[in-house]
Fold this sequence. Notes:
Radius of gyration: 19 Å
Largest sheet: 7 strands, mixed
Shape: globular
Helix content: 25-40%
Order of helices and strands: EEHEEHEHEHHEEHEEHEHHH
Number of strands: 11
Distance between the termini: 15 Å
Amino acid sequence: MAKLIECIPNFSEGRNQAVIDGLVKIAKNVKGVTLLDHSSDSSHNRSVFTLVGDEEGIQEVVFQLVKFASEKIDMTKHQGEHPRMGATDVVPFVPIKDVTVEECIAISKKVAQRINEELQIPIFLYEDSATKPERKNLAKIRKGQFEKMPEKLLEEEWLPDYGERKIHPTAGVTAVGARMPLVAFNVNLDTDNIEIANKIAKIVRGSSGGWKYCKGIGVMLEDRQIAQVSMNMVNFEKTPLYRVFETIRFEAKRYGVSIIGSEVIGLTPAKALIDCAEYYLQIEDFNYEKQVFENHLLN
């Protein structure tokens, strides 16, 4: 049985359609790889691709995408709501079928080394690939963003895992690692006050005392003039989406603000959404494995 690996590279480009189309073309033309989804956001100025493939194909497509991004995306001119430090900001590898996290860690290191050696982009390993506890959390690595990264790399504890203590002049720095599936989940508020979104994000994210498996920031969607709580749910089973959603609803009320919608970026495990349906419909004694029709077709 062929091993199946997912990769979800994030690129710091959500506005230039020619660059996005170029990335799509590469993603669709590497043997052994399938592009499942791609989405771009102009406010975040970011694109997220979801790819699955075998070991050889997934490594090759990632390198080709990073190479193209380094040639076409100039971080000295980049502006967007989402934190970022590189043209290719982050490259996570996720085990899907007949492959272990340990194997994905090994793949992440091979890809990281090749990117650095051939493209001279410094690499930090993160999540399960992290070489130090403080590098497990992407937010800590990315703190300071592209603009402050040259100084950060000179600090004793921030020597890249691959590369020298200097950023690529236009492509910046990239994080590469292995992790389990997460859900990129955003909640939109009927206010243009970014401070409200920031305060709510601080309440729900685990690093500031909120839900342990939630990472969140407040962002402003300029095209819609609304504030958003933008989150990564890194373990949707231990911290389900509905729990965070209801916390945001509860906290927003204190400011006279309501939720006007939510969005999932990229692909998500079905169970993350079915858990929400089970909660809101108050289904009793629901068995996900036995009662979801599609599960029987896939077995």
